[in-house]
Design a protein that fits this description.
Length: 455
């Protein structure tokens, strides 16, 4: 038997033809003698193809290599599918896990959100409480401010009423005294006089706006410092000069302590020279400014002087007498009230008589803006607590608490008690007063008496 050599394509053609041939073979069973088995190698067939020579009937139940290959093919396909399914199962499992994780995470997120919401709620409540507190506090501040303003207004009102009352007191003191005298006259009692007549002059305007009173300061305090009148100077002030005018002419134009020795005086004394006022050359004979020195003293004290040259002092009647008889002198009285306003009373001439005439005061004509209160003391002798030379039945120095050229008793006393604040309350007019400037119950803050030769 000859088996023809065929190419792969030819073989395929024959395979496709095979069913029809087989059909023919069924129709004509006897005419078909042989069957064909084709092997289709995957590779290109180069050599001869062998075919079995056995009868087709015997071969029916035989498993051919082709079948095995088919089965293998199917198996491998199924295996691949299984692998793929396995892969899909694996992937699905991962997804399930992932979904589980996500669910868990979502639950966590939910609880976290709830927590945050609660927190936020608390925060909002707290903020609202805070703002309520703040509003309450603001309200209280506003109330306090309003109360403060109300009190300030009330205080102002009271101050005004007090100042009005103080002015009334000043007037009424005079009136009461008059009535007291009238009573005494009416009922004819002959008791010791209650006090000197009070000053009648009540100025139209009080020079202050404060009306507080203070007790006079400790009188001995002033002696603890400063230079004493009688002590020999240790800081060697310039001098001695006849007076401050001579010191100025010698070229010393700075205000301060100088050593003076008037013609006819036995020994030099210290004094304050004022060179800053009205061309300078003024010898200060009396100065008050803080109540640090006690002016309620006896004759001897007023004769020799007392106090501190750089503060409050009285130069001494004997010194003043000796200074003023060296030539023609004029007097300047400087007054300062409690609002710092200064006024002046100037007298064209000034001198004292000797001790045997009790240092009688001799004044010229007045000019200035303080009023001529001192003129009522012109020609009067000096009176102290222990030497009564005044025109009053009692001792004016006792009622006015200082030595002065009293009349009975007069319109001014610059050697009285230094009261703080201006208007003072006292039975007698014992402050540092100048009736034409402030009245008898207004105590001046600072005063100075100064002399200078007439140009
Ligand atoms: Ca008398």
């Amino acid at each position: 038997e000859h088996i023809p050599t065929l190419s792969a394509s030819q073989l395929l053609e024959k395979m496709l033809e095979a069913p029809s041939r087989r059909k023919r073979g069924v129709e004509d069973e006897d005419s078909v003698k042989c069957s064909y088995t084709f092997l289709v190698p995957e590779k290109k067939i180069t050599g001869p193809i062998c075919a079995s020579s056995m009868a087709p009937g015997d071969d029916k139940d035989r498993v051919t290599r082709l079948d095995i290959a088919d089965v293998r093919d199917v198996l491998s396909r199924q295996r691949r599918e299984i692998e793929m399914l396995q892969l899909m199962v694996d992937v699905d499992g991962g997804l399930v896990n992932e979904v589980k994780l996500l669910r868990k995470e979502s639950r966590n997120m939910n609880s976290r959100v709830t927590q945050l919401y609660t927190q936020l709620l608390h925060e909002i409540i707290r903020k609202r409480d805070n703002s309520l507190d703040q509003a309450r506090l603001e309200n209280r501040i506003l109330n306090a401010t309003a109360e403060m303003l109300r009190l300030a207004a009330r205080y102002k009102e009271l101050e005004m009423r007090f100042s009005a009352l103080a002015a009334v007191v000043n007037n009424q003191s005079v009136l009461i005294h008059e009535l007291e005298e009238q009573c005494l006259r009416t009922y004819g009692r002959h008791e010791p006089p209650a006090g000197p007549p009070l000053v009648q002059v009540v100025p139209e305007n009080l020079p202050v706006n404060t009306f507080t009173n203070e007790i006079q300061r400790d009188h001995n305090r002033g002696f603890a410092r400063g230079s004493r009148m009688d002590s020999i100077p240790t800081s060697s002030p310039l001098g001695p000069f006849r007076d401050c005018y001579q010191a100025l002419q010698a070229g010393h134009s700075t205000s301060g302590m100088y050593l003076l020795k008037a013609d006819g005086s036995e020994r030099p004394t210290q004094a304050w020279c004022e060179h800053g006022l009205d061309n300078g050359g003024w010898t200060v004979i009396q100065r008050r400014r803080d109540g640090s020195v006690n002016f309620f003293r006896n004759w001897e004290g007023y004769k020799v002087g007392f106090g501190n040259i750089d503060n409050e002092y009285w130069l001494g009647l004997e010194n003043i007498y000796n200074l003023a008889r060296q030539g023609d002198y004029r007097l300047m009285v400087e007054l300062e009230d409690w609002v710092g306003k200064k006024v002046y009373a100037e007298y064209s001439s000034f001198r004292l008589e000797s001790e045997s005439e009790f240092y009688r005061l001799r004044l010229g004509t007045y000019q200035g803006n303080a009023g001529n209160s001192l003129i009522s003391h012109n020609g009067k002798p000096f009176t102290t607590l222990d030497r009564d030379k005044d025109a009053f039945s009692g001792n004016c120095a006792h009622f006015h608490k200082g030595g002065w050229w009293y009349n009975a008793c007069g319109q001014t006393n610059l050697n009285g008690v230094w009261y703080s604040g201006g208007v003072y309350r006292s039975r007698f007019q014992d402050g540092i007063f100048w009736a034409d400037y402030g009245g008898g119950f207004y105590s001046l803050k600072a005063v100075r008496m100064m002399i200078r030769p007439i140009d």
